[in-house]
Fold these 2 entries.
Entry 1:
Amino acid sequence: MLTNVEHIGIAVRDLDASNELFSKLLNVAPYKSEAVESEGVTTSFFKVNQTKIELLEATSPDSPIAKFLGKKGEGIHHIAFEVDDIQTEMERLKGEGFTVLNETPKRGADNKLVCFLHPKGTNEVLVELCQEIKE
Ligand SMILES: CC[C@@H](C(=O)O)C(=O)SCCNC(=O)CCNC(=O)[C@H](O)C(C)(C)COP(=O)(O)OP(=O)(O)OC[C@H]1O[C@@H](n2cnc3c(N)ncnc32)[C@H](O)[C@@H]1OP(=O)(O)O
Ligand SMILES: [Co+2]
């Protein structure tokens, strides 16, 4: 079951400059910065009440963020939904005809298992599913 918007991902060219900008905009400092090597990104996270913003800077030219910046420029890159059981949700969405981009949930940032849906099947919006890892 989808339970919430978990975060909104924003592609940025310069994470330091965008951290400053979003700190001023939201009036809070980022609570976390984390590199996710498998995605070729460095992230930083802001939280305002229940709303989470994830800034993403590319760390390699073949990163999805580098490609997105090259094609579309900075801006909203994806919307992430929290799910209670990612595997069940992936199966349900595949059954509805959506294309999952990873058949097995992978480790994302901020202690999450994640899966992406292809934007060509979701009105050009890249959708991420996130399930909290309980350790
Ligand atoms: C930090 C970890 C994690 C978290 O925990 O939160 C993250 O958020 S990681 C975020 C970065 N990772 C990803 O985005 C992984 C999923 N993405 C992909 O697998 C690929 O980016 C893609 C969506 C399959 C596209 O890859 P590819 O086909 O190689 O690139 P193209 O540039 O050729 O794009 C094809 C087509 O898709 C459009 N596109 C690409 N990205 C987006 C997007 N974010 N939103 C909307 N549309 C997107 C792109 O414009 C192309 O369209 P056309 O030009 O019309 O062909
Ligand atoms: Co994300």
Note: The first helix runs from residue 15 to 26.
Entry 2:
Amino acid sequence: MAPAALIDDHSPTPDGSERPRILVPEKVSPDGLAMLTEHYDVDSRPGLSAEELLRAIPSYQGLIVRSETKVTAAVLAAARKLRVVARAGVGVDNIDVDAATRQGIIVVNSPAGNILAAAEHTVALLLAAARNVGRADATLKQGGWERSRLVGVEVGRKTLGIIGLGKVGIKVARMAVGLGMQVVGLDPYASPDIAKQAGVARLAASLEELLPQVDFLTVHTPLLASTLNLLGEEQFRAMRPTARVLNVARGGVYNEDALVRALDEGWIAGAGIDVFTSEPPAPGSSAERVASHPKVVSTPHLGASTVEAQENVSLDVCAQVREILRGGLPTAAVNAPLILPEEYRKLQPFVRLVERMGGLYTQHFVGAKGGMVGGRRFELVYHGELAGVSNTRPLFAALIKGLVSSISDGGGRDVNIVNATLIARDKGIAVSETHARDESEGFGSRAYASSVTLRVVGSGGEQQVIEGYVSGQNVYISKLDRFTANFTPEGTMVILHNYDEPGKIGNVGMVLGRHAINITFMQVASLDVNGHGHGGQQQQQQQDVVMRDGSNEALMILGVDGQVTKEVLEDLGKSEGILDVSLVRL
Ligand SMILES: NC(=O)c1ccc[n+]([C@@H]2O[C@H](COP(=O)([O-])OP(=O)(O)OC[C@H]3O[C@@H](n4cnc5c(N)ncnc54)[C@H](O)[C@@H]3O)[C@@H](O)[C@H]2O)c1
Ligand SMILES: O=C(O)[C@H](O)COP(=O)(O)O
């Protein structure tokens, strides 16, 4: 998969040769797509079959769908570069969001772009069902002129039951009140105040209480395990024989077989249905029996199909796709914790710093010594202005990405803000975050406005510390375990732990020269004699070493250019006075 969108500052096409591609296998309004074509190749291929989608998906970074395309786990598994699936609408039940989350693919939608359209369509079906509009139109077109068989009922002064008082349900309530209806709601999670403001006269406590009193019933819940078959035979039997039911939410909330029986046997009078359990209704299915029933006015999932709604949802999701593909944050992610774009921009250099601190930790402390990252406790301590940032999800994700980058197949590329928690859990990495508002909690007086400390505690209680800071857009490491440093963590680095005695630099230079390796920078990090940030026990150990050897220790950090093989590292390790060598690639 492609590098993680939210914590990756690299180009989505590492070789820079090809523009990222976005696949649109359904009819999506061109208004939004136009904002993508400048930077991305947008392939509109309405009607793409499931097999064609499976074959095509590996070369796309973005996928924009409506409700017809099934974005299954298999489709997501076949994706190689996919970073975002955008649903140009509300419902994401055609997308395997869990599978996307596991793969670090962000799923976005347009939670509000089509709610007015859906509410208006509900009212259209309400009136059509009340006045037999569908049948009247069909018979007239067939040369008939039926008036007496098509006498309808009025909706004014009647009771409308609304199950689900969310965005669409509340709008329907307002419109129904405008038609002179009395509205009774049922939604265990609804706010009574909002319902009251929308004109809902009463909230029912249960279906048993609601159903016998309504003349019309409409459902506006998502399709969940708890709402599948919410209304079956028992519920339809509990309704008035003159009642009519509507569904502009999702097929399956009414049990379709039970609905057909209820209409056939006169338990209820009619229905207005926009959504079905199979779309288009499969031949011989319960969906087909509902759609073709003479007492049902049926529409082919047209709830969101208005020019205005399609413009809204297209603009909404295309803006998010653009933002994600250029490393920003979406406004309506279904599976990513929300963080404001400006907050994210502020965090970006720290994201880079923390990712590199994680990489440095694994390669310097763990890799060289053959240890494990899992099973340790990691503490990120934010100092200065950073301590005031409440949403540090990108920093958490960056740490996980850095920690696993050198020990996972994809080089940590598949870690992002969406799946970092899952990956940390899978690898047994526990991370806590501390906001050191009071500097006494941190490293005492510090020269940087904002800095980050990574403290790691192993299973035996042993501790390591890395500290870093940001200056402008540049990131620096200011402390590596017991040593005070000041270097930019990037490229290939050899870190040598040695006795701080004359001649060391020359020896190391000679070894590297013999292997034709250039030194691009060098820095000696000396022991932090003040011991800022270290536990008392560690400081004591450090003093013991100094007194026992009569010499100091230091770290030599070398930026290098060339092939650093195992042999090079072994040769360096054999040099006089060298205690340890690690190779770090960031
Ligand atoms: N036909 C269309 O073209 C079309 C268009 C837009 C939306 N929709 C669908 O309409 C549905 C509602 O959309 P929304 O934006 O209003 O969603 P929403 O999330 O804003 O509201 C859903 C409401 O259902 C309530 N609810 C959940 N379970 C319930 C239960 N068991 N009993 C009673 N209430 C329950 C929730 O508390 C919530 O208030 C969704 O399924 C959406 O996909 C369809
Ligand atoms: O969930 C939705 O937004 C509606 O069901 C609309 O679906 P559509 O985009 O396929 O019209």
Note: Residues 90-91, 114-115, 118, 163-169, 186-190, 220-222, 226-227, 248-250, 274-275, 301, 303-304 surround nicotinamide-adenine-dinucleotide (ligand 1) (CB under 6 Å).
